[in-house]
């Protein structure tokens, strides 16, 4: 790192200094990126995930102070006792809970014919993507309401605002996350608690890459994913990565967004706001 870069890095403000955050699904993918970025900005973080080994590895990788400033808790977001226990563990270890990030989610099986839909799979998707996030909101609110402040951020998807971006159950679940965000924001606003969600375009994670069209898994998976997604994207020259989604979550979690609530922040380079059929007329 150059001297100029070092000065810039050391002088950059830590936007979550003194705050406590809990991130579900924080052991990998976007959740891990959020955990790492939050730590860079001074937050004490509780990682809640069903991936015990991965969660412990992330905790251990965050430096010598990880034992005091980072906590890992096993948490299945479909089990209310697990969610309640994770929230209580964060609050008890760090003294409070300022930020709740409901990140844990799944896409479910790809189904191209609704007649073959498996409702057991649909229930599984909703249990994690909707009920799990609602439980996160419920138990975060339980701790935040007495302090009259807090920020709850949930991960949705561009599938929350349009069809054709994922399986039916996934699309319905992400629409539901936006509805929950608006409804819970209405209730918790009187307690000074903000509730928002972030809807990213396709990001190269283990969650999304299995849903590439058949035949696109050749060579390096991430490279091929970015090439395919980039070809469909509106904004060229930029690849959407987990760290970019984490930056959007950081903003909504921070005091810089202190008067923003009930927002679905779409991080898609304009993908959902333009008509791709008109691109031919631009050439």
Poorly predicted ranges (pLDDT <50, ≥5 residues)?
A: 1-10, 214-218
What is the CA-CA span between the terminal residues?
Answer: 42 Å
The CATH class of the largest domain, by name, is Alpha Beta
Strand content: 5-15%
> How large is the radius of gyration?
19 Å
Under CATH, the topology of the largest domain can be stated as: Rossmann fold
Task: Supply the number of structural domains.
Answer: 2
Structural class: alpha/beta
Mean pLDDT: 88
Number of helical stretches of at least 4 residues = 9
Order of helices and strands: HEHEHHEHEHEHEHHE
Fold blueprint:
Blueprint: H1 3-11, E1 20-24, H2 29-40, E2 44-49, H3 52-61, H4 66-69, E3 70-74, H5 80-94, E4 99-102, H6 119-144, E5 150-155, H7 168-188, E6 193-200, H8 221-232, H9 242-253, E7 264-267
Parallel strand pairs: 1-2, 1-4, 2-3, 4-5, 5-6, 6-7
Helix pairs in contact: 2-9, 5-6, 6-7
Q: How would you describe this structure to a colleague?
A:
It is a single chain. The protein is an alpha/beta fold and 283 residues long. Helix content is 43%, strand content 13%. Strands 3-2-1-4-5-6-7 form a 7-stranded parallel beta sheet, sandwiched between helices. Helix 5 runs parallel beside helix 6 and helix 6 (119-144) runs parallel beside helix 7 (168-188). It is globular. Mean pLDDT is 88; it is low at 1-10 and 214-218.
């Amino acid at each position: 790192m150059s001297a100029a870069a070092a000065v810039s890095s050391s002088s950059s403000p830590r936007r979550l200094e003194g705050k406590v955050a809990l991130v579900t699904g924080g052991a990998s993918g976007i959740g891990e990126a959020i955990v790492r970025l939050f730590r860079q900005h001074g937050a004490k973080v509780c990682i809640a995930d069903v991936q015990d080994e991965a969660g412990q590895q992330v905790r251990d990788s965050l430096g010598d102070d990880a034992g005091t400033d980072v906590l890992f808790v096993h948490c299945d977001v479909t089990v209310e006792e697990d969610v309640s226990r994770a929230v209580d563990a964060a609050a008890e270890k760090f003294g409070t809970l300022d930020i709740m990030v409901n990140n844990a989610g799944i896409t479910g099986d790809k189904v191209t014919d609704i007649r073959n839909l498996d409702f057991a799979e649909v229930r599984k998707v909703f249990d994690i993507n909707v009920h799990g996030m609602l439980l996160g909101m419920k138990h975060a609110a339980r701790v935040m309401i007495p302090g009259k402040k807090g920020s709850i951020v949930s991960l949705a998807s561009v599938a929350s605002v349009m069809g054709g971006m994922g399986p039916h159950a996934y699309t319905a679940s992400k629409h539901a996350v936006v509805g929950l965000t608006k409804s819970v924001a209405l209730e918790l606003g009187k307690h000074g608690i903000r509730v928002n969600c972030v809807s990213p375009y396709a990001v190269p994670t283990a969650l999304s890459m299995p849903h590439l069209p058949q035949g696109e898994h050749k060579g390096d998976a991430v490279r091929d994913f970015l090439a395919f997604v980039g070809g469909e994207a509106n904004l060229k020259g930029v690849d959407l990565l987990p760290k970019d989604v984490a930056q959007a979550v950081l903003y909504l979690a921070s005091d810089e967004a202190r008067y923003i609530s009930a927002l679905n922040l779409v991080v898609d380079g304009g993908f959902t706001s333009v008509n791709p059929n008109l691109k031919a007329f631009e050439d």
